[in-house]
Write the structure tokens for this entry.
Amino acid sequence: MSKPIFELVDQLPTSGLTISLLNALDFVAPGQWQNTVGFVNTIKTVTGETDEELIQQIGERAIYLYNDRSQGYQRAMWLYQTVDGTDKALGAAALANKVGEKIPLLGFLNTVTPKPDKAQTIDLSLKLVAELVAFCQINGIPGDSIGDFVGSLGEYSGESLIRMVALVCVDGLIPLGPDFISKAISGISQTNPQELEQNSTFQNIQDVIPGNNAGSKLNFIGESFDSVKGWMNGLVASNNLTPQKVTGHLQNFVEISDSKLDYLAAFLDVATNYYEHTGTQTLARRLIERAVAEI
């Protein structure tokens, strides 16, 4: 089994590039995300509870629920980790001595490789599908419940909302440009099952994507993305989001030139793990809310 949930929450960082990135995206969802870390602290934050005995009970119940394999919590956690974990070792090593200073992107041009648009669209759509499947796992509903997921997006808040904001900005706008949604839809439609099977993220998570084979899984990915395009378009339009506007907010911690946005995207891909970080926070919140309801 992976690490216990309390350990995962206790080990969440309080600073670093992922935190800088998420804070920089606050302009899209002001005040929505607080970097709540520590298991006991998260229980107190979510419940407002101060009674130590009750906090202990809630924690124990949440841990019990997470450990119950008939529930989908561990699988959701695995999804958040896996979809984010393609190649972080390179980023971590290169950045080890950069903490606390503004990072000159030029210094990393040799160590990161931008993905071709098609690979980027597959990655973007797989992250979206991971969110959908994790949502279904956490809520105990069938994994192909696209309608339920789309309906819930309007109610996303906190760490779940900032994760979707980051998906749109970091995996959509920056690497693919302002028309990333149409690019992604056409990219998926031009992808064949064999190409999908060569994608490392797909190889890792294919077992939890609905469908009997790569072809039907590809259809599900396309259907999922298509169903969420309205929500994504709304987010972009209501905040006037452009690649330049987003990168303007990232200037606090990384030096960027507009001509190198594909490198910036590749750099953020290896240097941050916003999906796993906020996914852990989402999962902890859901577990604690359920634990409280069951005590």
